[in-house]
Specification:
This protein has 134 residues and is mostly helical. The chain has five helices and no strands. It has a single domain, classed as Helix Hairpins.
């Protein structure tokens, strides 16, 4: 595998890096806002993947001119991504609105603190100390 092969797949390497970064952020962070940011990074990597697959080297816009040798790029992935961006912005706004409501209800946006408060309300027990057994 030469250097040109690596550069030819540059878009896909960026997709992999962004996807893993977003997934790591969602899994490893307890802050709800950071989780939403991780989801947006993951979503951006999916957008780049679809756009990269839709691009054809040397392709033009699919305007029929009658030349049978002309190569066209597929416009469908780009159109779908435009729709996905609108849905993604709306989903992010909804997620942030829910975080605001959770902050008002629990006075925290940390996942472990919210879970501890729920356990205390449901079972009436204080959460165990994180330092270990007494």
């Amino acid at each position: 595998m030469g250097g040109s092969d690596f550069l030819g797949l540059f878009n896909y390497w960026i997709v992999i890096v962004l996807m893993m970064l977003g997934l790591y952020t969602v899994v490893s962070r307890g802050n709800l806002v950071k989780k939403i940011i991780g989801l947006n990074i993951f979503q951006t990597s999916v957008f780049l993947l679809y756009i990269s697959m839709g691009k054809v080297a040397g392709g033009t816009a699919p305007i029929l001119t009658g030349d049978p040798k002309e190569v066209y790029s597929n416009p469908l992935p780009h159109v779908l991504i435009l729709t996905a961006i609108v849905v993604g912005v709306a989903t992010t706004a909804l997620g942030l609105a829910l975080v605001v409501r959770i902050k008002n209800a629990y006075d925290s946006i940390e996942e472990d603190e919210i879970q501890a408060a729920d356990d205390e309300m449901e079972f009436g027990v204080e959460p165990a100390a994180k330092d270990g057994p007494p």
